[in-house]
Write a structure and sequence with these properties.
The chain is of the alpha+beta class and 102 residues long. It has one domain. 46% of the residues lie in helices and 24% in strands. The protein contains four helices and four strands; from the N terminus they run H-H-E-H-E-E-H-E. A four-stranded antiparallel β-sheet has the order 2-3-1-4, covered by helices on one side. Helix 1 crosses helix 4. The longest helix is centred in the C-terminal third of the chain and has 18 residues.
Length: 102
């Protein structure tokens, strides 16, 4: 499962529109991907952890903060949406994207 999350992460990067980053306009902000659901297996927890996800009691799930694309909220949102969609389509996990302005 670890490899699939890395593959999905890399694919999400390629799907993220470079045009959004070149424009440099728009809001500054943050974005993340949250994986929720009954994740009880130790192997699944380790896989998520190794893929950069951290458990958040506030989000009630495993969260991956998008640390790429400078301060561009639009790019971060685009990546997070792509990554969450790929996780939903290719794993048993429930995933969604979130964001907020700085």
């Amino acid at each position: 499962m670890e490899n699939i999350l890395q593959e999905l992460h890399d694919k999400a990067i390629t799907l993220t529109s470079p045009q959004l980053y070149q424009d440099h306009g728009g809001a500054c902000g943050f974005a993340w991907v949250t994986v929720q659901g009954p994740i009880r297996k130790k192997a699944d927890k380790e896989t998520l952890s190794q893929a950069g996800f951290k458990y958040s009691a506030y989000e009630k799930g495993w969260v991956f903060w998008v640390g790429y694309y400078g301060q561009s909220m639009h790019m971060k949102e685009d990546f997070a949406a792509n990554y969450a969609k790929l996780i939903r389509e290719n794993t048993p996990f429930k995933a969604y994207a979130g964001s907020r302005m700085d």
